[in-house]
């Protein structure tokens, strides 16, 4: 059959196939260029987003730090009872605002993929005291008892900033959802080369049906809270905690009974280098 096909027909068919191939290559070249341009735009967008995040953090963090320092200094001066009360209220509101801004910026850093870990020796006891001081007004107002147990004394290497944010959120929730006059339980221990935090409170509990969604961003499940006078916050706390725990190669979970809710964070211990000891 092929013997009957003339050379002209064969050449025409080959030429046609080459033209189709060239058209395909041109289309691929065009698409490759479009993908390259899109990738460059995405890189530029990420760069702008990172610069914007850094700028916004500085715009808020610098004056906030100044206000917190000023509030701290004001607390040392003796004034009338009314003035002292006003200064205490100012300090409480500044602490709340600083806490919420911290969660917003951390959530933005997580979204941008900018949550690298920076390890150093951490004094867990001092860190806990610092976090508890942040919520001293809430603890006093609700007449809560803090039961803190540290069952180890060896140096711990971790990311101090991430640990601070994790503990701020978990202890804040424990205090917020505790019934008045109850106890917040904080237990820290080392188990199988793992640093474990257990933070529990007696009060509003999280139903087991919400277990899969409780760590989702902006998720709130406290429809009827008997421990809180009003539902505040942005719904970012537990999602931020979950992301930070994962970034430290750890796990977080919680258990609940009729009144007791306990969050458990497990973090793999980091090696203590000579320079850190």
Describe this structure in words.
The chain is 53% helix and 16% strand. The longest helix is centred in the first third of the chain and has 70 residues, at 7-76. The chain contains six helices and seven strands. Helix 1 (7-76) runs antiparallel to helix 2. It is elongated, with a radius of gyration of 28 Å. The mean pLDDT is 79. With 277 residues, the protein is α+β, with helices and mostly antiparallel strands. The protein has helices at 7-76, 81-111, 124-134, 136-141, 160-176, 237-247, and strands spanning 120-122, 145-150, 156-158, 183-190, 194-202, 250-256, 260-268.
Summarize the structure.
The chain is of the alpha+beta class and 277 residues long.
SSE layout and pairing:
Layout: H1 7-76, H2 81-111, E1 120-122, H3 124-134, H4 136-141, E2 145-150, E3 156-158, H5 160-176, E4 183-190, E5 194-202, H6 237-247, E6 250-256, E7 260-268
Parallel strand pairs: 2-4
Antiparallel strand pairs: 1-3, 4-5, 5-7, 6-7
Helix pairs in contact: 1-2, 2-6, 3-5, 5-6
